[in-house]
Specification:
By secondary structure, the protein is of the alpha/beta class. Helices cover 27% and strands 27% of the residues. The chain contains ten helices and 20 strands. The longest helix has 18 residues, at 311-328.
């Protein structure tokens, strides 16, 4: 790939969001582009008057450019080293590097770290990479070399799991593969809880690190409670509820593999417990038969909407499932409810939960408004990077 930036010029008036440091340029904002620009090429963005606006990766999509820099600078080895080093220094500053209680965290969070299209999760000496743009894929070697240089012997595995995240229009035939080592599974520690992580077969990079702080909050609320963890996947909330002193925890997921993972992780932490049961069942169906059984319910479904064209149906889904939980929870019960859909705004999600609560006629208080942890930083100029929304409700 030619590393000399090609030129793209925007239409009159379309530079405003770039001057506000929003890192995306949509295809409709482009007036003209230099001949021969290909998927993943480095491009220089010019305003209608020819003034420089930024440099980024081009892609043949509605999001046409993801900006890496808003000032004239070379996107070279020094650039990558500086950006990745800054991300790691930030994780050190928030206490996640060499932490005795937690050895898994998000190392690079796309736009939140000034590297749009790049996700790297760190699992106890293993880095799992997901690239969401061809430009990032073409920069893979230098990213990997930088990780090796910074971590040295502390990094024994690098696994590229981008085959399902690169845009299909990129035309890149990619298979998931090891770029360092060949370890496909490990045990991590999170707030002194143990979890088995399998990046070869697991969802995303293998584990949902974004719920770490919210799992700890569930622990704080669980003492003496009957707890229901729905869409349990790896059973993270279930383990924390048991740690918090729940008298019974039930985990539900429609996936038999998820239930297997949940049982494995519960056994890692509490091999002799009789306070946990797991059910392979549709969550909506399960909620039909729980009247007044649970003191604490967790609703953490997969993204109901990945695109704006299904937003309306997704909001109905959030309303339906929250209404069922609010109707069925014990008086005085606590509901943890989440949305991880990027296209669902905080206001949209809260409105769906509000309507759900109103339909039940029960008295509902908001105790906490939740988001993603500090290793998933939100770029203040890019509100789309705040994808995880949550509410903790108390229901009379």
């Amino acid at each position: 790939m030619d590393n000399t930036p090609r030129k793209i010029q925007l239409k009159q008036g379309k530079e405003a969001s770039i001057k506000r440091l929003h890192p995306w340029i949509f295809s409709g904002a482009i007036a003209k582009k230099e001949d021969g620009i290909a998927e993943g090429d480095l491009v220089e963005i010019l305003a209608a008057d020819g003034s420089f606006l930024g440099t980024g990766h081009y892609q043949n999509n509605s999001i046409a450019v993801r900006l890496l820099s808003f000032k004239p600078e070379k996107i070279d080895a020094e650039f990558w080293k500086k950006r990745i080093s800054n991300a790691i220094k930030y994780r050190a500053s928030i206490g996640l590097i060499n932490n005795e209680n937690t050895n898994a965290f998000r190392l690079i969070h796309g736009e939140g770290d000034g590297l749009p299209g790049l996700i790297i999760d760190y699992y106890n000496g293993a880095a799992v990479i997901q690239m969401h743009s061809a430009g990032m894929y073409f920069s893979r070697d230098i990213i990997v070399d930088t990780l090796k240089e910074i971590f040295k012997e502390k990094l024994h595995t690098i696994y590229d799991k981008s085959s399902g995240t690169l845009p299909f229009k990129s035309g890149i035939e990619l298979k998931n593969e090891f770029l360092l080592g060949n370890t496909g599974k490990t045990t991590i520690k999170e707030n002194n809880c143990l979890f088995s992580v399998d990046w070869l077969e697991g969802q995303k990079t293998g584990f949902f690190l974004d719920q770490r702080d919210n799992r700890k909050l569930v622990q704080d609320y669980s003492k003496g409670k009957q707890v229901l963890n729905t869409f349990c996947y790896t059973g993270g909330f279930s383990v924390y509820a048991l740690k918090g002193g729940a008298i019974q925890v039930d985990s539900v997921d429609s996936s038999a593999k998820a239930i297997e993972l949940t049982n494995e992780n519960v056994a890692l932490n509490y091999p002799e417990t009789t306070a946990h049961k797991a059910y392979t069942e549709d969550v909506f169906q399960f909620l039909n038969n729980i009247d007044n059984k649970y003191d604490l319910i967790i609703l953490d479904p997969p993204a109901f909407a990945k695109h704006h064209n299904v937003l309306k149906n997704a909001l109905q889904g959030y309303k339906k499932i929250n209404q069922k939980a609010i109707e069925s929870i014990k008086p005085g019960g606590i509901l943890f409810t989440f949305s991880c859909s990027q296209v669902v705004s905080k206001d949209d999600f809260r409105q769906s939960v509000f309507v759900a609560a109103a339909n039940t006629g029960r008295t509902v208080r908001i105790l906490h408004q939740l988001t993603q942890p500090t290793d998933h930083p939100v770029n203040i100029y890019h509100q789309e990077s705040e994808y995880l929304k949550g509410l903790v409700l108390q229901i009379e």
